[in-house]
Amino acid sequence: MYDAQGGIDDPDMKKAQELRFQRRIVFGITPSDDDRFDSNLGATISEGLKRKLMEVIDFSNNTKFNKRKMKDHIQQKSAQHMAKNTNAKMNQQKKTITQNNIRIYNTHLSIAFGYPDIYGLRAFDVAIEILFLLDIFRNLLTEYQDAQTVQMVSDFKKIAAQYMFKGAFIFDVFAVFPFIYVADWKHAQDLLLIKMLRLYKLQVKFIEPDQILKMMRFFYQNKDREDQIQTDNFIKQVIKIIGLIINTCVITYVLGCFWYRMVDRINLGDDEPTFITNFYMAKNPTAKTVNDIPVHERLVYSVYFILTTLSTVGYGDFYPVSILEKIVGSLIMFCGVTFFSIVMNEFIGIILELKGNNQTEDEKNLNKWMLLLRRFNNGGKALDKGIREDIMKHFNYFWDNNRTATLLEKKDYFDALPRDIKRILMKDYLFEDVFTQHRFKDFFDNGEAMDPDFLYDISFGFKPRQFWPTEEDCFIYESFEYVTEMYFVMDGDWSFAKEINNFSEIEKDPLMVNRVKKIKGRNFLILKEHSTATYIGEYYIFTSQMSRYNYIANTNVQTFSLTQSFINEHIFEKYPQLKTEMVAEAHNRYNTKFQRPLNKAWKDLTEKISIEAEQERQRNRPAVIDLTKAQEKKQQVANLNQQLEMNKVKLENLNEKASQMFKHIEDIQQLIFSKCDEFDEKVKEAESQFGKELSIAIIENKKLKKELRENFKSNLKGNLLGGGVNNRFNKKSKQNEPVQK
């Protein structure tokens, strides 16, 4: 069933697909152009070209010639053929422009002013008539394409019949008929109106935008594709504007010639005052007839009158006189209102289109967003102009400097790259100036060397920011406000500042006044200035604290920002080991490089201000003798003397008491000394008595020991029985004697 419906297994379908594929190979068209190619193939390719096409297809099928080389070869030939056609079209365009100028200038000038023999115009007109006559013969000898067979017809009889009966032969013959040579000038000038038939060939488009665009592309062919598209649109709109100007000039010129021809014809048949008698003859009193006035002067008067009438300006220096002139002038004014309304409408459309084409997709989306905000602003009221300008200024800088936008615009291509190449693109190409800045090394160096993965991940968070030295945009950070972004300052001068209230004391010091900056009626004292690359705000976003100082831009400061949410969600979650180290490093850097120097600078400045203020008050204090103060001082001296006498009496009393105390102390000391002597004597007596008693006790102890020893020996001898025992005892005693000794 699938084959019956012409599926992929249908032989006819396969053959058609193969033929379509071969056509794409030969002509180098993409599959998206397939339907357009097939639908227009019979109408755009002749039979001879079809035969050559089939020969090329057979050649590519029957040989081993590389199809890719065949495609490149045919594309090259196609480009060369296109270049030749472009040159031919440009030549044809030049020819068309020339013919248009000839038709406009020659035809209307001849009808209005005849054939004036100035600047060789009569010979020029004769030559033009001969060229138009030759054009008739050229049309009789030029092939034409048959609408039915789509083939070129070269038979002379068929060409002549086609041109005479179906073409513009009659109009061309009357357009070149020499009426001036077969009738007198009075009637011939009216017959010259027949030459207006040649204007049917006049092309309204005097300029072909596509042809000029091909020439102009040579100057910007190396730009990006989006820039080329914007430049193409700009050139097209400029060409349209030039075309409107040319069309206006042509219509004004044609109507000016007709106007002169009409008023000249009226003047010939009537003696009443007309436009010619009131203006042409009045402005040239020496001229006897209107023909005595130079042609270019008459032409300028007529064109000037028509231009002021078409534009409905009407200065009043030229105006219709007769009834017929007023009727025709009124019709011209009606046409002028319509004509200039159309021109202005097209001009406004061109401006709007030019503005819309120059906008990028981001700018269009931003405009839609601001229109959406308008709905919630007091019932559809537009946003304030200053706010809109600030928004556009911010986003214009963001779009121009957002380095990842171009890369991520084709995210599929970027995701398909290996990670090494992506790291190189982000680290060594897009943000090389950021990562190689030595003043940023402390932030990116999370170890012995910079981690490529860390640099790659953090590069996606860089957002361009710029601060301008204006009152509205100068604050990088404002004191006592929470910080949500840190900044890597790439270029620009900025400073730390603190708001002050006692400006009256500072303005007296010219050196201090130069360090004060006024912003929106507030005074800020500059504590420290910076002009080199650095990074700021990392301590605030790591610890979620408010800014303690005002960071103010002195010039245009260009930075890259990292948001607090990006660091917490994409960096600290992926690299949790870095959080503690980075927070500690940020705290140390903030204290050593910012907080301590700034606190010291603020303290020194405030002390200097207070000292200078006190000195100023002392210098400005008047030297006036005040009697009341002198009396008060004298009374104070008397009081002090009285108090001094009282203190003297008290001191004497204290001295007397002290002397009595010293006497008591001396008595106590003598008593102590006497007691000590008595105690020493008693101790000595006790010692001598103790020595005597001890010696007696020792002597008695020795006597007692001797008696006991003798009693023991006698008792021991008496108790022993037998000689053996005595002998053993004697031996033992002999053996023990040395020991006893």
Which features characterize this protein?
Ion_trans_dom, 741 residues, single chain, disordered N terminus, Helix Hairpins, five-stranded antiparallel β-sheet, 4 domains, elongated, alpha+beta, 68% helix
Structure description:
Helix content is 68%, strand content 7%. It is an alpha+beta fold and 741 residues long. It has four domains: 11-87, no CATH class; 97-202; 204-358, Helix Hairpins, CATH 1.10.287; 402-615, Jelly Rolls, CATH 2.60.120. Strands 4-10-6-8-7 form a five-stranded antiparallel sheet. Strands 3-11-5-9 form a four-stranded antiparallel sheet. A hairpin with a 6-residue loop joins β1 and β2. The protein is elongated, with a radius of gyration of 60 Å. The N and C termini lie far apart (145 Å). The model is unreliable at 1-8, 21-46, 56-71 and 79-105 (pLDDT under 50).
Domain count: the total is: 4
Spatial strand sequence of the major β-sheet: 4-10-6-8-7
Computed structural class: alpha+beta
**What would you say the CATH architecture of the largest domain is?**
Sandwich
Overall morphology: elongated
Strand coverage percent: 5-15%
Gap between N and C termini: 145 Å
Q: What is the C-level CATH assignment of the largest domain?
A: Mainly Beta
Low-confidence stretches: 1-8, 21-46, 56-71, 79-105
The overall average pLDDT, rounded, is 73
* Helix percentage range: 55-70%
- Radius of gyration (CA) equals 60 Å
Helical run tally: 29
Domain Ion transport: 121-353
Transmembrane segments: 163-183, 241-262, 299-319, 331-352
GO molecular function: voltage-gated potassium channel activity
Subcellular location: Membrane
